Amino acid sequence: MSDPSGAQTILPPEGPRPENGSPAKGRHMAATPGSTQQGVEKRPKQARAGKADTSKVLAVPKGRTGAARILLGRDAVMIYVLLVVVIYASIVIPRFASPVTVGFLLLDVIPTLLIALPMTLVIISGEIDLSVASIAGLTSALMGVLWQGGMNIGLVLVICVLAGLAAGAFNGVLIAYLGLPSLAVTIGTLALFRGLALVVIGDNAVANFPPGLTAFFTSKIGGTGIPTVMVGVVVLIIAFAVVLHFTPFGRGLFALGYSKEAATFVGIDVARSKFLLYLATGTVSALAGIYWTLRYSSARSDNASGLELAVIAAVLLGGVSIFGGKGSIPGVLAGVLLIGTINYALKLDRVSEVVLIIVTGSLLIISVVAPNIASAIKQARHSRRVRTAPLP
Amino acid sequence: MSLDSKSAAPAHTTPGHGRPSALGSFLKLRELPVVLALVVLVAVTAAINPLFLSAQGIKDLLLNATILMILAVGQTLVIITRNVDLSVGSILGLVAFGTGSIFVAAPNLPIVAVFVLGMLFGAALGALNGLLITIAKVPALVITLGTLYIFRGISNAWAGGTQYFAGDRPDAFGNLSVDTFLGFPVITLIAVVVVAIVAVYMLGTRPGRDLYAIGSEPDAARLFGIPVQRRVLLAFVVNGLLAGLAGVLYASRFNSVGATTGSGLELDVVAAAVVGGVAIFGGSGTVFGAAIGALLLTTITSALTALRVDKFWQQAIVGILILAAVVIDRIASVRSARKLRIAEARNV
Known about the structure:
Distance between the termini of chain B: 15 Å
Strand content of chain A: under 5%
Strand order of the largest sheet of chain B: 1-4
Largest sheet of chain B: 2 strands, antiparallel
Number of helices of chain B: 15
CATH topology of chain B: ABC transporter involved in vitamin B12 uptake, BtuC
Low-confidence stretches of chain A: 1-56
Structural class of chain A: mainly alpha
CATH architecture of chain B: Orthogonal Bundle
Strand content of chain B: under 5%
Oligomer: heterodimer
Structural class of chain B: mainly alpha
Helix content of chain A: over 70%
Order of helices and strands of chain A: HHHHHHHHHHHHHHHHHHH
Number of domains of chain B: 1
Low-confidence stretches of chain B: 1-18
Order of helices and strands of chain B: HHHHHHHEHEEHHHHEHHH
Radius of gyration of chain B: 22 Å
């Protein structure tokens, strides 16, 4: 049971954690010979002087604290970037700052936004789920066939959500209880669920959903341009944010992402936590599938295909570490909205939609490379200073 | 504790501890399940529909598998080092379209030169991935997900709505995927040669073995003195090179190349490697296994068609196959871990 998880937990220390003050410093100490020597020479002095007030030394906080920590953190930077882009686009691009923009932007972004929520939790816990878009496609196909078969639409929706739950449970059992690697399993279920969608609906497309329902899914709240569905999405966002940031279960996910063994020792039920996460991704993916079907008023087997990579890109751009243990819901929201806004703004500016994916890719790479380069420069400067400084 | 009883019991049941028998080690090969699955699949299909193994049938099977095979071999190198390259589909697309453009721009260029150019182009793209990953020390999954989009975006911008068709290429180039040598299509022979070269490299050379060491324990590999960064970069460059080769062959094999050529291929490639017994977390698996995995995945599609199974079931069956491969791999690793534990307990 512990074997592949062992292989996986070796990964985190490999990963760069630039924002984490102490590990970076530790690595730096080991890396530069000058500094280790200095450390050795300094140690006895420090021990002699600081024997009386050890507690005080321990209490000195490392890194930023208080308001600075929130205002200068990764999430805050993402939100600033988002704001700058929105303001810049409103000034430069005509027709950007209008309720129509808000409406279409949000309608476009909702599927990614929905799936990004559970995906954040999954990636923070050190796993991944590539099958989300296929679950959405399967739900969509199921919805089309059941509705065409003459079933009551309420019942259809319930069955679709249950199907998503079942698909998530399938992933969850394989990953959480059988201990299989999530990357490999969900590549398999990516093909499996998409294949089942094809089995269910084949080449057909179902479009004749009740007009009242499809109209509701594209309707706006008054003149604000905000889609009515956003209310439900916001409720989900708050629910996920509270679960991740303010419940023992959610805090346990961070522990899980850092070290599975440590998490087990502090009493976290690792298998159960993971299983619940996959239930959540399955269910929310089903909701996204239902949304997709009603928004475009079309149930097809290839609905939402390829969405999994877009979701993961947005989540990682939002500051979630692919190794787990780091990330937040506000950051991910900013990431999703940033990609959505830039794409929409450039589309208004007549940049071809297919070329726009360059922006998504570049943003993703810059967001992970930039902090590392910054910390590397800082480290190089520091070690040069240490090397040139006269030994005491 | 229970350690004693565990180690004592199997001690009597496994007497041949010193040297594993040839048969035993053959049965433990990671590639065995996938080879067996392939043989059973082909045998059953041929028994029901004899046309499946006609000369033309075999030729089609091999042609379909060729490109995925080359990509899976390259991906194996990367996965063995505990990385992954999701951008191969986009690299293939760029190179395939580039090949089409070269033939239009310079129709008289020798075909060999086109191959070299395509492979160099692929290697350059792979090197970009590798450099970003090794210099900036960023996880490969993130970087190659980014370059998947960037490369695809570039080919969208470059190609626009343009498509190059078979008529735009010299006949000799197109004939590579039509002509056969001893019953094998020429491009398949190229793939087989590639598999053989890379397999020998991975089995018998220092850098090849280093890749396994890096994948099974990067820290230990570093302490041991292996130039980890350089080897990982090498894996990505070779992978890009092979994706470039696959791109050129794609242009030869298929009638048209355009902006969307090869999109979505990356997960098939990773799936082929996983089915072929390459562990997703690095350190084990062989190039040969991955090639057979690719052959199995493409053969299933043809076999299901030959068996007149509803074509909509094909993808679901591929999914089940991948899951089965993962489960088999898991069982094998649990068993070998248990065996190791017992061996260690006895040595103490």
